[in-house]
Amino acid sequence: MDDNKNVKKPNKAKAYWRENIKYVSILLAIWALVSYGAAIVFKDELNTIKIGGFKLGFWFAQQGAMYVFVVLIFVYVRIMNKLDKKYGYDE
Predict the structure, then answer these.
(1) In angstroms, rounded to a whole number, what is the distance separating the alpha carbons of residues 56 and 48?
(2) Could you read off the pLDDT of 11-33 as tens digits, one per residue?
(3) Torsion angle of the four alpha carbons 32, 29, 42, 51, in this order, in degrees rounded to the nearest 10
(4) Helix axis angle, 65-87 relative to 2-32, nearest 10°?
(5) Which candidate, 77, 69, 70, 89, places its Cα nearest to that of 17?
(6) Quick one: CA torsion of 52, 53, 58, 61, rounded to 10 degrees?
(7) Whole-prediction pTM
(8) What are phi and psi of 55, to 5 degrees?
(9) Digit-coded pLDDT (tens) for 56-90
């Protein structure tokens, strides 16, 4: 029986890290799209839209990206708590 537990643990750890890397990759892609895409690449297109009298491209470059980053932190914490619980790593 102990042999079965030892075989399952590495598989469980590999599955946990595979899923963890998937989530981190998605969140990093969102981060890159917002910071680089919205503030630099798509700035001219976004500047045709105004929020509170400011062009949307300017808003993303100055404030919007920071808000998105903070939201991504909370999303990451929530996802990781669920992932830890799913694989039995929660305390």
Answers:
(1) 7
(2) 888 999 999 999 999 999 999 88
(3) -80
(4) 170
(5) 89
(6) -20
(7) 0.74
(8) -70, 140
(9) 888 877 787 889 899 999 999 999 999 999 998 87
